[in-house]
Design goal:
The chain has 3 helices and 10 strands, in the order βββαβαβαβββββ. The chain has 137 residues and is of the alpha/beta class.
Length: 137
């Protein structure tokens, strides 16, 4: 599976059971990124996506158990460490801001198991700068 997550400067993902932020340009980037591939997410995350813009949108609260090689998974509020051995690629969208957080990304991207192979910046709608980082094993 290919994981997509949005993180603040401290690796935060959620605060008080809510996403830290969102950006419509980021959603457009995700739609273009996944193309014709399947994109999995839970019901909470699906609320911010337009099903018409993503051809193969799959919504299931157990989506990490359902995804197979080559499938994309948009993760906002799920622990990834139990699924790490099945993750072939991690795509991080960085907000370049610090938000309150009580749930953090639980895979160490600096520990040497994964290497950053791509980094691209774009201007969001509500964020001056968003960076996409792609990590491979």
């Amino acid at each position: 599976m290919i994981v997509i997550a949005c993180l603040d400067d401290n690796g935060g993902m959620m605060f008080n059971h809510r996403r830290q932020s969102q950006d419509r340009m980021l959603r457009a980037h995700i739609a273009a990124l996944v193309g014709d591939a399947r994109l999995w997410m839970n019901h909470y995350s699906a609320q911010q996506f337009d099903a018409e813009s993503i051809q193969h949108l799959n919504v299931d609260d157990a989506f990490l158990q359902e995804a197979v090689d080559g499938d994309y998974c948009f993760v906002e509020d799920a622990a990834l460490a139990p699924f790490e051995r099945w993750i072939e690629k991690i795509i991080i969208f960085r907000w370049h801001r610090t938000y309150p957080a009580d749930q953090h990304f639980d895979i160490d991207l600096s520990g040497g198991n994964r290497k950053i192979c791509e980094s691209v910046e774009f201007t969001g709608h509500s964020h001056e700068r968003i960076t996409i980082e792609v990590y491979l094993r």
